[in-house]
Specification:
The protein has 192 residues and is α+β, with helices and mostly antiparallel strands. It has two domains: 114 residues, Aspartate Aminotransferase, domain 1, CATH 3.90.1150; 60 residues, no CATH class. The protein has seven helices and five strands; from the N terminus they run H-H-E-E-E-E-E-H-H-H-H-H. The chain has a five-stranded antiparallel beta sheet with strand order 1-2-3-4-5, covered by helices on one side. The two termini are 36 Å apart.
């Protein structure tokens, strides 16, 4: 146990008993505890394997390369359609965690083996993400915008495509595109 991580488990919260049990299970698998992204993260040879995090309706173990695990029990969840590598196992009570303890350890050990083998999740290329019609129209009409967008790093391009694609209504997509045009022309990413 890492004392720097204790605060996460000590603060009063809805899932305290559940995450304490998850911590015990993960540490019994020989991983090193650290704090990343404000959450307890467990590593093998400084490589992230799994983290514990809480949400309003559940707490979860998040396997960083969960897409590579054999989900023989069908319990891994892809948080959103755009998450490529990570997968969660969600819990809503302590009994679920205790009942799944042997299975959880199996998944953790498999995740360690994935890391030892140096396996990588094949990620979609930026070009494989769809460009919303509203943004494509702007790119077609404005050569300077198209050049500026193409000059951005693939990660920045992907972030814009996902951001522009998210709204259900066309007018919201148009609004997002229009607000971001100056930023793209300045060579900046969505969160720069």
């Amino acid at each position: 146990m890492n004392p720097k991580v204790d605060f996460y488990f000590d603060k009063a919260q809805k899932w305290q008993k559940e995450i304490e049990q998850l911590r015990t299970i993960v540490l019994e698998c020989g991983l090193v505890e650290t704090l990343k992204w404000g959450c307890p993260c467990y590593t093998y040879q400084k490589n992230n394997i799994v983290l514990i995090h809480v949400f309003k309706d559940y707490c979860a173990l998040l396997f960083m390369k969960g897409a590579l695990l054999n989900d023989t029990n069908g319990i891994l969840i892809q948080q959103t359609e755009n998450v490529q590598a990570a997968r969660q196992i969600r819990f809503t009570n302590l009994g679920e965690i205790r009942a799944l303890e042997p299975v959880l350890k199996t998944y953790i050990y498999e995740a360690i083996e994935v890391e030892k083998a140096g396996l990588k999740v094949p990620l979609k290329k930026t070009a494989e993400f769809s460009t919303p019609e509203e943004f494509q129209h702007q790119l077609d009409e404005n050569p300077a915008l198209k050049s500026a967008f193409e000059a951005l790093t693939p990660g920045r391009q992907r972030a814009y495509k996902l951001y522009f694609s998210a709204p259900k209504q066309s007018r919201t997509r148009v609004s997002r595109v229009e607000k971001c045009i100056p930023q793209i022309l300045d060579g900046k990413g969505l969160n720069d």
